Amino acid sequence: MTKVYQAFETLRKHKAVLHDSVALGSGIQLAAWSNKNDIVTQESPDHHTLSLYVADGYECYHKTRGGWRNGGGPDRFCLMPKHSMSSWDVRDDLSFVHLYCSDEHLRHLVEQTWERSPASIQVEERTFEEDPQITLLYRHFLLSSQWQENSNQLMLSSAANLLMAHLVKNYTHLQWALPVVRGGLSPHILNRVKEYIHANLAKSLLLPELAVLAELSEFHFARMFKQSMGMAPHQYVMNARLIRAEQLLKNSQMEITAIALECGFSSTSHFSNRFKSVRGMTPSALRNGIIV
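RE: above sequence
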């Protein structure tokens, strides 16, 4: 069952417009919003919210002890820990994206990544700040892909994992350095993961399920896989999808729609666009022998 996040539900009761949302396999949720001429109060939610301003936001004001203050704008982020209360006066256009996660998500990440179990994880509150790494992960990975597309789920879950690790390292009382990962996966583990990937290209593949196959944390698996293969897991999977699609286009009579589904793409249009961006031609052009 999908977790209900209080901050998400609060925005839905106001003027905020929900443009897209997706629940990742672990229960973490992403949501893309816009808002204008609205006052929103988030009252002590039981989860953490990481917000990045995507566009505008210059006239968004946060209520402080000294009164209302602004400081928003594209690529500014706000971090709202659980049980914190915040009020926002959105006086003009604002487009923003939220990542919602719980203490349980952070604890699982900490235990798996650092192999340590802290008594608590205290997330810091931040408002209208800049962090190039947060901006990079949001814009390069989360905002550059279609959230409802099955073939993007591995990239989304990987980026969300990196974001949470960055929060733990930089915006909690722990501030532990990320472990140094040396070496790749053993040959038999690597083969096990690759065989699983190729046998399940039609489904949404997520980072946690691949890490389980390797008996590693998501953090260690992603880095060791890249050491072995020279590319991140989501890049390898996408490449495998496109190779399989090309084989089917050349050697079968399957409809292109069926090939898209067989290779893990939710829509023919997304499959066609992705295929053309990598292969330089559309699937139909390849099948018809047209060189572009």
